[in-house]
Each structure stands twice: as C-alpha cells, then as structure tokens.
Amino acid sequence: MTHTTLNTLLDAAADLGPEYGGHLSSHLPMALVALHALGADDHRLRQFFDEHRQRLLPVPATAADEGHGERALFGQIEHFIVLRQRFAAELAQAGHDAVLRRLLPALVPGCAGAAFHGLIRTAAAVQAGHTAELAAALAYWAARWQPLPLPVPGKAHTAEAWLQRLQQAAPGPSLPDRSIAGRAARLAGMPAFAPWAGPVPTAPDWAARLAHAAVQRYLSSGDFSVLHLVTATHALRSLQPWLDDDAWPHFARAFAAVWLSARTDPAAPPRVDPGGDWPATVFMALRSDDEHVIKLVWSCREEEAVYGGPAWRHAAALVVQTGA
C-alpha cells in the first residue's frame, strides 16, 4: 500500500463530475481516502476506482469565469468548475492552512447541502493532503451550499438540555422529498422545527455530544440519514483546527433538521451487539463495494480512537453485516 497510488487515483478522479444519476454525490474520492486509511492495498484501490468511475461523467477542465463575487456562486452547482478553478489557484498561492481558515467559517452554515457531502469530502481531502481534490471538495461544498433559515429569537438552553430535547422528540412530519438535504431544508421551514430554530448554545464539547448522539441513534435505527450524521460529525471534528466557535452551533441546527426528518423512533432500543472485532470488521469493509459502508467503518474507527467506548465498534460491525 502506497500513498502514491491514492494520489494517482485522486488525480484521475479530478476529471470526473461531482454528481451522477440525478444529483447524487460522487463518493469516489471519499471512499478512496477511507479505503486507504483502513489499509486497502494498491490493487483494491485501483479496483474500486475502476468500478465506481463507470457511473460518473467527465467534467470540462476549465470554464469561463465571469468574475462574479464568490458568495454569489454559493449554492449554484452550475458554477462548480469556476469555484474549483478559483480555489485551486488560491491553494497554490496561499496554501491549505490559509484557505481552510478563510473558507470553512463561511461554508459551515450551509453544510447540510448535498447531505453533508461537501463537508465530508473536504475532510477526506484534508486527510489525503491532496491539493486538487481539496479544491474540488471545497468547490462542491460551496456549489451545494444550503443554509437553513436564520435563527429566530427564542429562549437559550444549555447544550445538554438542547440535545436531550432533540433525542426525546417525536419524529418529524413525513415529507415527500427523496433526498436527505431536501427533507432537512423543508422541515427547517416548518413549525415542527421551531424548538430548534432558535439560538443554539455554544459548548466546548459539542463534537463529543453530537457524535455520541448520532452513533447511539444509528445503533437503534440503522437509518441511512442518521448514518450521514455519524460521518458528518467525524468530518467536522477533523476540521476543527480551522474553525471558530460558531461552527458547532451552525452544524447542530443542520444536525437537528436531518435528525428529525429521519423520523426515527426515540424509544427504540439499540440493536443487539453483532459481535466482531475491528480486524474482522475492517476486513469486511475493505471487500465491500458500498461506499457508505466503507466510510462509516472509517469514521467509527476514527471516532473510537478519540472518544472510546464500544458503540463505534458495534455500529461498524452492524453496517458491514447488514449494509447501509
């Protein structure tokens, strides 16, 4: 296993579009980084790339930049190439640290777009240390930027009380949108979201609180939307060095919208421990062709290293045995 093969494949992935099949996010770069982190050898990385590139279309290398202000391009997927060009030039001139410090505070309020995949892809690109992929990841996050309604005046709560109310809340209304991001955005504008539309408290341990809430709800539900809360929380924690104190309250509001729109049962008990140690679970993940399985196992292993506890191993073992 070499980092050279990962870099070569990420270089090749730069020629492929960020979405496919009706606005589904390309998981190819993220899954390659996750596979590499889990220990995939060069053959497996190439095999996964060859299989998954078939669903993606090439993108033009360049596009005409009409000079619009950066924020005017946010949330406009048709400007993905222009944003990628701009971010690539800025990365070449200023370096990763400066660009991440400048952009991430502006991007986090729209992190719910594309079911957090801009955020997750950016974190994976930082993990890989690959400049071209980082430019593409940031561009995708910006192009699918989706802010929720601005906070409305309301009673401030402690982080503990805010999260406890969320965990005990009844499922949100049934919504027709097929996409995670679409359901979250629709719910955020409804009266059912009022308790979470107000100020979100700041707290030094938001990362841990949300991470544990997400993995426990995944263990009780196996829900696909909640799976994205686990991987997104891991992603934002990994980007913490470039974020300010406002990042977690912004993320928490998006977290709540996806949580409620998932319509999971707050009273459901955790599923039975499926057994399986980390070597066996990672072995199964490396053989999986499901990018969500691969990414969740990687996130769970990383989160366990930070927080400890058996929930992460249980969630990883469940997903390789049952699928995403």
Describe the structure.
This protein is mainly α and 324 residues long. It has helices spanning 3-13, 28-38, 42-52, 70-73, 80-94, 96-107, 117-128, 131-143, 159-168, 180-188, 194-197, 206-221, 224-238, 247-261, 278-287, 291-307, 311-322; strands at residues 19-20, 24-25. Strands 1-2 form a two-stranded antiparallel ribbon. The longest helix is centred in the C-terminal third of the chain and has 17 residues, at 291-307. The chain is globular and about 50 Å long. The chain starts with a helix and ends with a helix. The model has no long low-confidence stretch (mean pLDDT 93).
In short:
Among the domains are: 3-143, no CATH class; 278-322, no CATH class.
